[in-house]
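Bumping with the actual sequence this time:
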Amino acid sequence: MFVIIGYIFMSVCIFGAYAMHGGHLGVLWQPSEIVIIFGGGIGAMIVAYGSSLKSVLKAVPTVFKGSAYGKSFYMDLFALLYEILSKVRKEGLMSIEGDVENPDASPLFSKYATVARDHHVIEFLCDYLRLMVGGNLNAFEIENLMDVEIETHHHEAEVPAQFFAKLGDGLPAFGIVAAVMGVVHTMGSLHLPPSELGKLIGAALVGTFMGILLAYGFVGPLATILEGKANDSTRVFQTIKVTILASLNGYAPQVAVEFGRKAMEGALRPSFLELEEYVKNKKG
């Protein structure tokens, strides 16, 4: 929603001010130059990110949606972690083996549909719970393995943001390409009267304008949004990591969950009492 509002506000300010000064909006409509700018930029990105285009296309619709990892998601995540760790503490690690091996059929996971819908989070959580059940790795080894996986996940999640950042960096250059091609066309039309030459020169300069506007006004902000979404998903993994490691180091479930709560950013972090009440209600 904010993306559309921002685009509309920016366009009204830029083109409205241009029209207020007597500019003719029709002059700015140069489809051939838009094709050169976007075609050149996207073509270059296909060369650079050809193997990652699927993840980029999948990420595009998410820029128009809010973060999937809001406060309600974290509340459910902590309640789920608390129930799992409490079950382990009372009944032993083997008591969660069935839940971990088949989370889709687990009554424990099914209580928290918000979390269960996120395949990556459930896979990450179940993988390390499975390692705990196996009992072959200590807390230090699991922490190192978690760090490696989180870093790998973050690198993959940042690919769409990098794509749009690189595209935004390249569009002004392709705008110059369009402008130069327009100038070349103008130089080949010097036999035309000055009024016609003025139109050709103006059309050529539109290429530079469009390249800069598209880069910094439209494409660049998308890279920032996607970078934030990559950070959001990584932060969820970090929260799970802190909670599980606290449990492995012998802390009670409620204390382990508190460790995870402290790993959250302040804007989303529930208060201690708020989270405690929510976990009790869910468990009840």
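The tokens above came from a reply further down the thread. The chain has one domain: 31-284.
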